[in-house]
Amino acid sequence: MRSSQLRLLFSRRLLGLFVAQFLGALNDNLLKNALVIQVAYREAGSAAQIEVIVTVATAIFILPYFLFSATAGQLADKYEKPSLIRILKLAEIAVMLLAAAGLSLGGIGFSLAVLFLLGVQATFFSPLKYGILPELLPPEDLLGGNAVIEAGTFLAILVGTIAGGLLILLANGPAIVAATLLLCSVAGWIASLFVPRLEAAAPTLRINPNIAAETWRVLRYANESRVIRWSILGNSWFWFVAVALVSQFPNYAKGVLGANNEVVTLFLTLNSVGIGAGAVLAGRL
């Protein structure tokens, strides 16, 4: 990471946001991977059952992004972004309390429901962490700021993936994972208190209660611009391929290679390292 990017990272404008979003992404992936490894290695399920549960877990976490992204973007414009960030970090604490209960009880259905709630929280947080950057940073620092946030996100995915895969199978794994989730969510809320206050971007904006209609309106608007259209398609294709591959790692490692959970974690780690390195190189380019 270049010195200019490090300067941005440790600046008062960006540090609180960086830590808050870093810990949130870490928690998302810690919980997801802990649940997947628990199903694949702790609970004696067939290869077909493992594949279905892993795929369903991935889909459940992503579904809120499709359903609520347009509305989340409207809320991010209408209200002051730092205040919304703090509210959502408090909501994350509540979700992690439910996650801790789910890990202790060991119920797959309950844990999947919690994963959906976590996906909802992440959906409403995403437009805030990117939409706030032009308000926090001058234009000349915007690309560097995006690179810092993106690299931090995938570093968090890396740490969460490794921790979730290794901690859940320890003797007191579910309790350790639950405690880590709660600790990170509380620390993330504290970090959000240091995001500078800002004015709302569009306080007079009317929120469209029809989620489907608003989603369609945003898609039509994006399709009118060739640059935006192809950017969205390229980004969507990247995530489509990434999710399709990552969701198969646990079953491939256990069923095909006959390997343990550490090999699954290695695959996921290499994936995250590659994407994180790409984010930093994109900032340089």
Short description:
The protein is mainly α and 285 residues long. The chain contains twelve helices and no strands. The longest helix has 32 residues, at 47-78.
Highlighted features:
12 helices
Helix content range of the residues, please? over 70%
H/E element string? HHHHHHHHHHHH
Mean pLDDT score? 84
Name the shape in a single word. Answer: globular
Multimerization status = single chain
Whole-angstrom Rg: 19 Å
Task: Describe the protein in words.
Helix 2 runs parallel beside helix 4 (81-105), helix 2 runs antiparallel to helix 5 (108-131) and helix 11 packs antiparallel against helix 12 (261-284). The longest helix has 32 residues, at 47-78. It is built from twelve helices and no strands. The radius of gyration is 19 Å and the shape is globular. The model has no long low-confidence stretch (mean pLDDT 84). The protein has helices at residues 3-9, 12-42, 47-78, 81-105, 108-131, 133-136, 142-167, 173-192, 211-223, 226-246, 249-256, 261-284. Helices cover 82% and strands 0% of the residues. By secondary structure, it is mainly alpha-helical.
